[in-house]
Amino acid sequence: MAKTRRSRGKKGTRKLSSWNLLVMKTFKELKAKNKDASFSDALKEASRRKK
Fold first, then answer.
1. Are the C-beta atoms of residues 44 and 30 closer than 8 Å to each other?
2. In the predicted structure, residue 1 carries a pLDDT above the cut 60
3. Does residue 35 register a pLDDT over 90?
4. What number of other Cβ atoms are within 10 A of residue 12's Cβ?
């Protein structure tokens, strides 16, 4: 008879990088102003802000 599979537990999650935090913050701001804003718009805007 086959052995039952054991769950291995959850892998840990990494902290978000400064870039990810900036993009998420930018996306939230864009969404507040314009409901139709897309994530790609947030990436472009975050890229401009980082420079």
1. no
2. no
3. yes
4. 5
